[in-house]
Amino acid sequence: MKSLIFLSLAVLIFGGCSNKIERPYIDNYSICSQTISNVIIDQVSIENQNTNLFVTKDDIKSTFEESLKQSGCFYIHNTKDSQLLDGNTYILNLKASVYQEQETTNKNLIKKDDKEKLIMVFNVTAHNGEKSIMVSSKSGLLTNSTKVLGFETTKEYQKDKSTLIESASKQAVIALQEQIK
Fold first, then answer.
1. For 12, what's the count of Cα atoms within 13 Å in the CB-facing half-sphere?
2. Between 20 and 30 A from 86 (CA), which of 35, 59, 128, 154?
């Protein structure tokens, strides 16, 4: 009888724990058939208000560069050469902000639901001497988890980090491409 109670309790505890994640997917592969502009990434800054995700400037820059390449719209130059600064070359400044919103709901005495939304906002400023463009994008990642008797599955913040950065940077590249066209 004791083993039946223990088995039922174990199934309730571990079967009741769940961790559901909604991950956005944005496709920006080859949205341009040819290069429409040259770009130079000048400054990258980050404001991280989330204690669970450690996002660096290199994370932001490398993911944004990859999104630019995937789009097929931009050619990336690594240096500010005065010969490159013409009407077709834009200097980009990136600013990323990361924050989270949390909500906890008690379902009953032994079960509670936690909702955590990780949010990244990208602001990209592009200028070429003649024209100045500013685009923004926002990426969110909603995590729903259920705790039974205080037990919860562990969250994969590393995967969440790359998904957030990738989604926000792809949206920013699409918006930038639409403004430059």
1. 11
2. 59
DSSP characters over 58-99? HHHHHHHHHHHHHHTSEEEESS--TTT-STTEEEEEEEEEEE
Torsion of CA 169, 172, 173, 175, to 10 degrees: 160
28 exposed, middle or buried (CB, 10 Å; 0-12, 13-18, 19+)?
buried
**57 vs 109, higher pLDDT:** 57
Residues 60/97, Cβ–Cβ less than 8 Å: no
**Block residue for tokens 């990642």:** 141
Which residue is associated with the tokens 């998904």?
A: 163
Q: How far apart are CA 141 and CA 119, in angstroms?
A: 6
- 35 contacts 68 by C-beta, under 8 angstroms: no
- The residue to which tokens 């070359």 are assigned: 89
pLDDT, tens digit (0-9, with 9 covering 90-100), for 48-92: 877 677 889 999 999 999 999 999 999 998 876 655 667 789 999
Full strand arrangement of the beta sheet holding 74-77:
18-22, 132-148, 111-127, 89-106, 37-48, 74-77
State the number of CA atoms in the 13 A half-sphere of 116 facing the CB. Answer: 18
pLDDT of residue 19: 42
